[in-house]
Amino acid sequence: MLDIDVRAKRAVTASGSVTASEIVHATHTPKGIHMVHAEMPVHREYGIAFEMAGGDLPPGIYWWKATEGLSVRTVETGGRRYVVCVGQEHKVGIHNAGAGLLALETLAQKHFGQQEITHRWSAQNYRGADGLPYIGRNNDGFIATGFAADGLTWGTVAARLIAAQLAGQQPAFAGHVVPNRLNPVKGAKNILQENVTVVKQLLKDYLTGRQEEKLPTTAAGDSAIVDVEGESFAAYRAPDGELFAVSNVCPHMGCKVHWNSVETSWDCPCHGSRFRPDGTVIEGPALSPLARKLPPTLGG
User: Fold this and answer.
1) Cα angle 77, 83, 85; round to 5
2) In whole angstroms, what is the distance from residue 10 CA to residue 21 CA?
3) What is the mean pLDDT of each run of 10 residues along the chain (300 residues)?
4) What is the DSSP letter of 290?
5) What is the DSSP string of 195-264?
6) How distant, in Å, are the alpha carbons of 9, 112, 126 from that of 175?
């Protein structure tokens, strides 16, 4: 998605544009700037899979000692049976991705012993402040977001609710998940915590500064916030030596991005936008990329 023209009801992508009578943001998080961004904590979860003989774990999905935050399930594909372990949640942009993945692997080994891990991946989730998603008409159309890790359930609910509302109906349940609600009993504390986190991160990055490095210290595979002639850049040197230098300011709402070494991305700690080393948007509310910065003094 490159742009959304609210007045013209037009969505613009790299391959063309689509115009409709209504816009529905049925995504992890609505694109652009929305009030719900101030209410939804954004987390990443890591996943691993390894082969295991049949019978060692019965089919199903389990919370394995839920206080440990470990979700376990089995899946069969290509004639092979795998155990899938997912958990725990980590705040986007301010967590140590390598440590998070290692913690998951260690927890899985605690319960299943030493296993050869065949797959590793991650995903992002957005959670409503009061535990319920946001589904329904918003300021510029319809949104369906805040599903946390329950997209299979809430995605179906959202499809039925929004379809009914587009047809002029008002289902009774719609009032419980309307985007502009505020539940002071269940949601106010989480909203406050989320916005305190955002403000703290802004103060930390803008007032106290971050570690800055000169470009020559950035070896292949390394990243750094680089100061060049009084201007800061987010720099990454690929294993082949190619240098990527981009703005370190997220175009969504101005927070500063942080490096995710496991997934080779610049992540925003405020609302979860993520970018490739060249600045291209991976996900999140940001519509535009991190601006490329290639002054002569950064030539690699």
Assistant:
1) 125
2) 9
3) 86 91 90 86 92 76 76 90 90 88 93 92 90 89 91 94 95 93 55 55 52 58 81 88 91 91 92 95 93 62
4) P
5) HHHHHHHHHIIIII---EE-GGG--TT-EEEEEETTEEEEEEE-TTS-EEEE-SB-TTTSPBPEEETTTT
6) 25, 44, 20
* HSE-up (13 A, CA, CB side) for residue 296: 0
Instruction: Say what the pLDDT of residue 197 is.
Output: 60
The Cα 237–Cα 221 span in angstroms is 5
Question: Residues 250, 290: contact at Cβ < 8 Å?
Answer: yes
Provide the greatest CA pair distance for the chain: 63
In angstroms, the Cα distances linking 291 to 175, 268, 277, 280 are 40, 14, 11, 9
Give the C-alpha distances (Å, rounded to integers) separating 192 from 28, 132, 195, 256.
Answer: 21, 17, 5, 21
Quote the pLDDT of residue 296: 42
Residue type, 265: S
Q: Which distant-in-sequence residues (6+ apart) come within 8 Å of 106 by Cβ?
A: none
Amino acid at 234: A
Placement of tokens 């899985």 in the chain: 108
User: Hunting for tokens 């106290």 — which residue is that?
Assistant: 208
Q: Which amino acid is at 47?
A: G
Show the domains of the chain with their CATH numbers.
3-40+129-205 (no CATH), 42-126 (3.30.70), 212-298 (2.102.10.10)
| Amino acid, res. 93 | G
Say how many residues make up the chain: 300
Q: Report how far residue 88's alpha carbon sits from residue 29's, in angstroms, rounded to the nearest whole number.
A: 20
b/e burial code for range 269-299 (CB count within 10 A of at least 16 → b): bbbbbbbbbebebebbbbbebbeebeeeebe
Spatial separation of the C-alpha atoms in residues 248 and 235, rounded to whole Å: 9
Residue 294 and residue 279 in contact, taking contact as beta carbons nearer than 8 Å: no
